[in-house]
Amino acid sequence: MGKTLLLKLKESLISVLPVAAIVLVLSFTPLVDLTVTETVSFAVCAVLLILGIGLFNLGADLAMTPMGEHVGSGLTKSKKLGILISVCFLMGLLITVAEPDLSVLAGQVKAVMNSTVLIVTVGVGVGIFLVLAVLKIVFRLNLSMLLMFFYMFLFALCALLIQSGKTSFLPLSFDSGGVTTGPITVPFIMALGVGIATTIGGRNANENSFGLIALCSIGPMLAVIVLAMSSNGEMSPEAIENLAKYATVQDSLNELGHVILNTIKNVGLALGLVVVFFFVLQFTILKLPKKKLIQIGIGIAYTFVGLIIFLTAVEVGFMPIGFKLGQSIANLHPAVLVVFGLVIGMVVVLAEPAVHVLNKQVEEITGGGVKKIEMLLALSLAVGVSIALSIIRMIFQFSLLYYLIPGYMISLGLSFFVPKIYTAIAFDSGGVASGPLTSSFILPLVVGACIALSGGSAENIMTDAFGVVAMVAMTPLITIQALGFKAVMSAKVRQKIAMKRILSADDEQIIYFSR
To answer: Which of 150, 155, 288, 120 is nearest to 217 (CA)?
Structure first.
């Protein structure tokens, strides 16, 4: 166990180091005016982030992934579709309601939308679409066709929302789809899919195990758009101004006890719901041996401690620093801000805990066909480009749909030309890439830049700054499917070259066998 933990800490060190190095180097230049307290706090939080990710990844391997797989296989073996659907809906609803990422986003927009209503609405959306995702595995439905239908329906609802004059809620709607697939949800739901697909079997079992995250990301977007359309509330100037009020590092340190207790409560609730469900199923359906339960119990403890350390470090050190960095760099020149967004985006995704869980599962399921490093590089490039594009949109103040509609059209179009497993992995990756650091570091950074560029006004935050999480969730869909397209074309070229060699071979080189 000790060697495994050291390996996980080494991986998380490599992941967090680039982000920490960029921010700390900037803190010693005239470009960013960070106080000694802010610099030291960020450095300490970076160390805690490394520890938190390491413990979380070990816990996910020991507990979250095995729990998901056992629940999926156990419910499928029971051959009771009604129980499978009911449990999946409740699991999707309750885990999402307690997902830390969603709480972070809801806390940032509580001035313009009731946090509890937003969280429950998103939870219902995830619950419904988790059921659809499970039915997709059970009945072997085509993921590309499902995605095409629901995204067309989503954009039709967007048109109705625009017609109703509530365009300011569009970026928030798309952001909600990215934040729901966080560090607790991803390992469990992905493993659930693997457990169900493996139990059902069939020729395309590996391909069927992916796609749950992809579908679960659509539910919140639809649910929040419907919520916005049915809402009669108007955003007051005071509410808009409150969006710009981020706590400073000093404020966070003064409230450190409260932050830790709140994080313990949120993580405890989230993990508690998963554990309660698992043990109910253990005594009724699964009947796993005691040795396996002890391993899962140890894994849950690692996950719990790791997430508390990770989320506390993010809230205390990364959120306020992100906001200040955005303001400082935007005051230099917009072009510098775009380049910084590209670079910081490429390294931030390395520190997302759920990304490592996804990459590991992808390499295992594809038998090494898709390498971890290949996936990580593709995600890194995609997230960097998405943040740079988001900053360009913020500078020139045009609609998020100018990116999303062409982006999703390209993504859905590619799905008809690449192996289905690449499409499933790509759409899962979109939800996974937009994790806690995106909502707690990148979003505050873009909000700070938006305020600086608008001369201190918070009027355009909802329309111009929000939407960055949605962009982070969209660009991996294109990048990873492009990898699949490249693999297909490379295979065809190799096949053509081999055939050409065979046809051009001399008769003397052909060996004839006689009886």
So the answer is: 150
Name the burial class of residue 22, with classes exposed (0-12), middle (13-18) and buried (19+) by CB atoms within 10 angstroms of its CB.
Answer: middle
Which residues have C-beta within 8 Å of that of residue 297, sequence separation ≥ 6?
A: 63
Structure tokens at 300: 């849950």
Specify the residue for token string 């706590």.
247
Cα first-last separation, the chain:
61
Distances (CA, A) of 262 to 105, 113, 197, 308, 315: 15, 21, 37, 10, 11
Nearest to 131 by CA among 91, 182, 179: 91
Burial of 30 (0-12, 13-18, 19+ CB in 10 A): exposed
CB burial string 134-144: b at 16+ within 10 A, e below: bbbbbeeeebb
- Reading the block at residue 498, the tokens are 């081999």
pLDDT digits (tens, 9 = 90+) for 169-223: 899 899 998 888 777 788 888 889 889 988 887 667 777 888 889 999 999 999 9
Residue in 171, 472, 187 with CA at minimum distance from that of residue 348: 472
pTM comes to 0.86
Q: What is the pLDDT of residue 92?
A: 87
| Helix (H), strand (E) counts: the chain | 24, 0
Distance set, CA 60 to CA 3, 35, 151, 306 (Å): 16, 36, 31, 10
3-state DSSP helix/strand/coil % of the chain, to nearest 5: 80, 0, 20
What are the Cα distances from residue 167, in Å, to 111, 133, 463? Answer: 17, 29, 8
Q: Tens digit of pLDDT for each residue in 290-315?
A: 999 999 999 999 999 998 998 899 88
How is residue 442 written in tokens?
């990148």
Q: pLDDT tens-digit profile of 258-272? A: 999 988 988 888 788
